[in-house]
Amino acid sequence: MNMAQEILDNSAYPMVGGDGPYSYARNSNYQKESLDSAKKMMNELIDQHLHPENHLHSMNPFSNSFRVADFGCSAGPNTFHAVHNIIEAVENKYKSLRMEAEMPEFHVFFNDHVNNDFNTLFRNLPATGRYFATGVPGSFYGRLLPRSTLHFAHCSTALHWLSKIPVEVTDKNSPAWNKGRIHYTGAAREVEDAYSTQFGKDFDLFLRARAQELVPGGLMMIVAVGFPDDVQICESSLGENFNVLGSCFLDMAKMGIITQEMVDSFNLHFYYPSPSELKTLIEVNGLFEIKKIEKLVSSIANKRVLLDVDACILHLRAVLGELIKEHFGEGVIDILLERHREKYIENPILSDERYIKEASYAVFLKRKIRVTSRRNSI
């Protein structure tokens, strides 16, 4: 295991597993909407840039296997939707080339942390016989597969999870110490810079690992949650939601349920890049050609109705439940989310569509066949 994997696995907390009412499988509609929004674009780009006659058999002329990996698959049904969309697009490409007789077998690698609920994932695996499935536990910030294994890599709504909290954010002697807050939203500039720097390092590790795993000319689709270039997170309902959540922790500290020190040492692992930030980091990395970066249409942002408060609280619990339990102990999550629900109802920003400014960005990349930079040689 390399250092990047070791760092993340020591601070990695999975989505709530199983298929119960608090599970990620039952509370991940936002993530599914991002996949649905990206489907048309992915189909078009696979049709344009997939050339099976060039690289499908590049490493093994006797193999007829097309290999796909979904990085950050979690345990819910969304990964199956993503895989279905990819395979369907590849099949359509073969049909358009009149290569049905050479249609490959599909081998899919499902990746997430070692403590992900793979039992639930494989228990719900579609019984279509359309592909061979393999679980790949480990951090996607390091190598997970042999060199030139993959033809298509996919990662959706997962890269905003940092590999670790920047050290300076929890250092009392640092100007980036994030005392009394749980995120960079509304914090000092040094805190946001620390988060941004950590994201840049993590994203570079992710790209380097995927570049080694993909065949030359292999394709990758990323769906990243972020904000437009002219929008600050503190101007959004998402940022306000983190502030409200932080205030609930502070209330509980005053009540003696948790300590102030526990609050000061707790920070969320999320960073939300802008499209220009993504573009710059990919170009500096130098291992991929950018074929397209596009903002996806969100049906949530287009609704002219109040968001379902209970659905939002359940989603928060599914995503953060294990992280909160690990840091604050058992019994805290119920009290926390009840207070959060009360404040959510009272705060008009959280349910006003004008403040829903976060967006999903589809990033379609092609692994360069030749890399001239010695720094980026693979």
SSE topology sketch:
Layout: H1 3-10, H2 29-49, H3 52-55, E1 65-71, H4 78-96, E2 105-112, H5 118-123, E3 132-137, E4 150-156, H6 189-213, E5 214-226, H7 237-254, H8 260-264, H9 275-285, E6 288-295, H10 299-302, H11 309-328, H12 332-346, E7 359-367
What does this structure look like?
The longest helix is centred in the middle third of the chain and has 25 residues, at 189-213. The protein starts with a helix and ends in an 11-residue tail after the last strand. With 378 residues, it is α/β, with parallel strands linked by helices. It has a seven-stranded mixed beta sheet, with helices on both faces. α2 packs parallel to α4 (78-96). Helices cover 41% and strands 15% of the residues.
